[in-house]
Write a structure and sequence with these properties.
about 475 residues; mainly alpha
């Protein structure tokens, strides 16, 4: 039997074909956004403390920024399996295929473990030459190496926490999913000042606090998914990897993977180019700008991630009107939010920079790059909406293409070309982002509307349209 006996309240909460689509998305979005905010605190808090060290704070912060591409690659593999498995899990639940859903979860978990081991070994062996390749100087390499050496030892915990938490949210337990990151982040906030300042470990202390916190988060996820509260469970008999299922998971997760990998590529290209045109100072400024972007992008990311299980479930249940309603709500809400963010950043740039560093030189030189980087920021809402719709409905090829399109085809070439045009220099690096937001957002969303949207018609819709036009 495919169906399982589920408590009425839990079943009602997990059935996204009932009630308001907007309410279903917001019910997930609010705790998921809070979860992402708290999750963001893992690295953000590290940067805040490191950026205000009594000595060499800018060099230490720059060193930390140089590790971002490698940390992003770890996130990429978490997304490859987690963001690939969770939407398939939601579609299977919508079709009432409970055993298939649990098998998807088990295969995802196994691949996260195996990949985490491989990444740890490779990272520890290659970290120093890679950091130099990514833009490290002799002044910043020690800070980057110290942080990365410890962080890599806990990469498996990071991958379990990030990759498996989506299976909690996909069952409708967004508050439980929020606790996954809340527990770890609060612990990180407590441990950071102790390890960094009291024990005088500096960047090594920040990394150690993060690893311990991620271990606790991973333990929480596994406890929930194997416990009685979950509707569907992580079971030993489903841990054996099936090639066909893995192909489906990777095919859909490739979008999130490529998005993260391309982010890593962009970070590498930006840091290397900034090292040529501006040196360590502007790599530090880019570290701050990226940190601000992570903070302000978090709510829209939470909204679109929350919409994915709702859209996927309704798509699996063939409730296409509800899918259309969810897409429009996600898009309009995202645009309004990002317009507000753009205005706030334009008026109060120094206040946001000061969160991460109080060096007068960085503050004086950081305002203009921040203004340029966030110009037209609202256009990113179209990229988020188009991308999330493709992922939620299992349209892996489109999702993969637009992951590559904005970053690799637009941002990377512009980052390399613009600094040499009309004396733009370092400002050309920051200008590449807004151009990509306009072009990438319009093309991604426009393609989604021209392909997916027009096909989302329920039986009888064609007849109603014909009657209305006659």
């Amino acid at each position: 039997m495919e169906s399982k006996k589920i408590k009425p309240n839990a079943q009602e909460q997990a059935d996204f074909t009932k009630g308001s689509v907007r309410s279903a998305i917001l019910r997930l979005a609010i705790p998921m956004t809070m979860a992402q905010l708290v999750s963001l605190l893992y690295n953000i808090i590290d940067r805040m403390y490191i950026g205000h060290l009594p000595e060499n704070s800018t060099l230490a912060l720059t060193g930390l920024g140089l590790t971002f591409p490698i940390l992003t690659i770890i996130t990429a593999f978490s997304n490859l399996f987690g963001m690939g498995g969770a939407p398939l899990f939601s579609i299977a639940r919508g079709k009432k295929q409970s055993h298939r859903a649990e098998e998807i979860m088990g295969n995802t978990f196994s691949m996260l473990i195996l990949t985490g081991i491989v990444l740890t070994i490779l990272g520890l062996c290659l970290k120093r030459p890679v950091l130099y390749l990514f833009g490290a100087s002799n002044a910043t390499i020690s800070y980057a190496d110290d942080y990365l050496s410890i962080y890599l030892c806990g990469s498996i915990f990071v991958m379990i926490s990030l990759g498996m938490n989506g299976f909690i949210n996909a069952q409708g337990f967004a508050r439980k999913g929020m606790l996954t990151v809340l527990i770890g982040a609060v612990l990180n906030i407590i441990l950071d000042p102790v390890f960094i300042f009291v024990l005088d470990l500096g960047v090594r202390g920040a990394a150690a606090a993060t690893v311990i916190s991620q271990f606790v988060s991973a333990a929480w996820v596994l406890k929930f998914l194997t416990g009685k509260q979950a509707l569907l469970h992580l079971k030993r008999r489903y841990l054996k990897v099936r090639c066909k299922m893995l192909k489906d998971i990777v095919g859909l997760g490739m979008s999130g993977f490529i998005m993260s990998v391309t982010n890593s590529i962009v970070q590498v290209v930006c840091n290397a180019t900034l090292q040529i045109y501006g040196g360590d100072l502007y790599i530090g400024i880019m570290t701050v700008v990226n940190s601000v972007r992570e903070i302000v992008s978090m709510p829209i990311s939470g909204l679109t991630n929350a919409a994915q299980p709702v859209l996927g479930y309704n798509y699996g249940a063939r409730a296409y009107r509800r899918v259309r309603s969810g897409i429009m709500f996600m898009t309009i809400s995202g645009m309004v939010y990002m317009l507000i963010v753009w205005a706030v950043l334009f008026v109060f740039p120094r206040q946001f920079i000061h969160i991460f560093n109080s060096d007068p030189e960085l503050l004086a030189n950081g305002v203009t790059p921040l203004h340029i980087y966030f110009f037209g920021f609202f256009m990113m809402s179209f990229q988020f909406s188009g991308q999330s719709t493709f992922v939620a409905l299992g349209k892996s090829k489109q999702a993969i293409f637009f992951s590559i399109f904005r970053k690799v085809i637009i941002v990377v070439p512009l980052t390399l070309i613009l600094p040499g045009i009309a004396g733009l220099g370092v400002m050309g690096v920051f200008l590449a982002e807004p151009i990509s937001n306009f072009v990438g957002g319009l093309v991604s969303f426009g393609t989604m509307m021209a392909t997916v949207w027009r096909k989302l018609k329920e039986p009888g819709d064609e007849g109603k349209t014909a009657s209305a036009s006659s």
